[in-house]
Amino acid sequence: MQSLVEAVSLIASFDPELYSILALTLQVSLGALVIACAIGFPLGAWLAISQPRGKRFWVATLNAMMGLPPVVVGLGVYLLLSRQGLLGWMELLYSPTAMIIAQCVLITPIIAALTHQTLAQLERRYRDLFRSLKVSKRRAIRAYLVESREALSTCAMAGFGRALAEVGAVIIVGGNIDDFTRVLTTSIALETSRGNLSLAMALGIVLLTLSLIVNLAVSSLRGRHD
Fold first, then answer.
1. Distance CA 114, CA 105 (A)
2. Could you tell me the pLDDT band of residue 8, with boundaries at 50, 70 and 90?
3. Does a structural domain hold residue 154?
4. Is 224 within a domain?
């Protein structure tokens, strides 16, 4: 109870360390979300309206990648960005950029797969109409994305929630460096191991609040879409 009281006090007093960690968490997760949406929305839309060779295989692969193990993704990005790696010359390892890349790899398949599921329904509904009007695939994709913008917002929020909760990949590629790559999830793990329960609980309360806000937003958008 004493730790809980101290945690609430840290939040209410706008503790600089706590809010700097929160700011970095939002910076990394929102950065990854923007990139993932830029890749996932068009990819999911293209799979929904196109008939590429082996489409079922690609869709199944995309769905399977929704459950990528975070530590495996972290290891892959680490090997890519290490000094002997393909992108080692960029010196991005143990930086917020590396964390954004890892989170982007994790949430892009989620956004792309959910986008495909959403737009595939629209494709079945409007396919014959668009063919009779000789609408190009590019214009059809644009129309589907606009028509389903509320449902796609739900997809984006789901990806954002996944990014917020990530710990395995970001701690591998970010290194959990104080005042540089320390985010909410990695800070909670570190402060708990140190026995600093008041700060760990304060960070946990903030993370739970963010997760609740994301889930409420998803539920609101889904209800509006329905």
1. 15
2. confident
3. yes
4. no
